[in-house]
Design brief:
Keywords (chain B): Lipoprotein
Number of helices of chain B: 5
Number of strands of chain A: 0
Oligomer: heterodimer
Radius of gyration of chain B: 17 Å
Helix content of chain B: 40-55%
Organism (chain B): Solibacillus merdavium
Largest sheet of chain B: 4 strands, mixed
Number of domains of chain B: 1
Strand content of chain A: under 5%
Structural class of chain B: alpha/beta
Protein name (chain B): YhcN/YlaJ family sporulation lipoprotein
Number of helices of chain A: 8
Strand content of chain B: 15-25%
Helix content of chain A: over 70%
Pfam families (chain B): Spore_YhcN_YlaJ
Largest interface: A-B, 12 and 13 residues
Distance between the termini of chain A: 63 Å
Distance between the termini of chain B: 41 Å
Number of strands of chain B: 4
Keywords (chain A): Membrane, Transmembrane, Transmembrane helix
């Protein structure tokens, strides 16, 4: 079988990916997760002494914690299968990445298994997050120095 | 599922009905001219959705909610109003905030009867507005 023949056969057999439906699912579920986050931040502002400026930290921590619990109970996997990027892109995806790696390697021991592999996936999120935050801050510093934006 | 969706959409629609005036003022001062001038200034501004103005003695506390797209320039708008009000009311301590927390608390503050408690709350809010962490 030649390569071209193989490719046409492969195209015929492979089921079509419903890109539009997948995007829609991701949009709806991602939006829902963000709405829950917004509700949590309102909760913190109404019942505790957090302002709009400071409420981001506890909200992110709560969302990550909830995602970690759901991952531990095996529910986040179902959500991930349904929503795809909609459940991976929000900050809850980070909690999922940490806990799922920890669960996966728990049979290798607490230190070398869980401890060594916990940030296997999330490590790159932290690294690139920090690097991109540095560059964004740099760009903002330049814009503020020029006078286009304000802190 | 369908019933839950219907319920949620009904709640969303009904929350849109809870309309209130754009400018709400609480005043505990003899100088009412102050109050009317400030109210007029805020009524004209198209960037602001709702505003609470609390005037106690020589304290002027303004908590506003900006229109969604104007929130990008929150700091600029706050600073502009702060300068504008400070210039207009030289002998008054002016505090302007576009933070939701300040707006929420000032709405609650307006219902407070005890003036001493109100003053304490106001000082707490001013401190909170400066909080960074």
């Amino acid at each position: 079988m030649k390569q071209q023949q193989y490719n046409t056969l492969k195209d015929q057999i492979t089921p079509k990916i419903p890109i539009l439906i997948n995007c829609l699912k991701a949009f709806v579920v991602g939006g829902l997760i963000c709405s829950i986050g917004q509700a949590i931040s309102f909760l913190y502002m109404i019942f505790f002494d957090f302002t709009e400026k400071t409420v981001g930290n506890p909200t992110v921590a709560t969302m990550v914690f909830l995602a970690m619990l759901l991952t531990g109970f095996g529910q986040y996997r179902k959500l991930g299968q349904f929503a795809g990027a909609g459940s991976a892109v929000p900050v809850t995806g980070f909690g999922n990445a940490v806990i799922s790696a920890a669960i996966e390697h728990r049979s290798e021991g607490l230190v070398l298994g869980v401890g060594g592999n916990m940030f296997k996936l999330a490590g790159s999120v932290i690294l690139f997050g920090v690097v991109s935050a540095f560059f964004v801050a740099l760009i903002k510093l330049i814009l503020v120095s020029v006078g286009v934006a304000s802190w | 599922m369908r019933k839950a969706l219907l319920g949620i959409s009904l709640i969303v629609i009904l929350t849109g009905c809870g309309d209130r005036e754009k400018v709400v003022t609480y005043s505990k001062t003899d100088n009412t001219q102050h109050q009317h001038e400030v109210e007029k200034l805020f009524e004209k501004d198209s960037e602001i959705e709702q505003v609470n103005i609390v005037v106690i003695e020589n304290e002027l506390f303004v908590a506003m909610q900006l229109k969604p797209l104007k929130k990008w320039n929150r700091k600029k708008i706050e600073d502009r109003w702060q300068k504008k009000l400070e210039k207009q009311f030289a002998n008054t301590t002016v505090n302007v905030s576009a933070d939701f927390k300040m707006f929420w608390e000032s709405t609650k503050l307006m219902e407070e009867k005890d003036q001493k408690k109100m003053m304490e709350e106001l000082q707490h809010l001013k401190k909170l507005a400066k909080e960074e962490t």
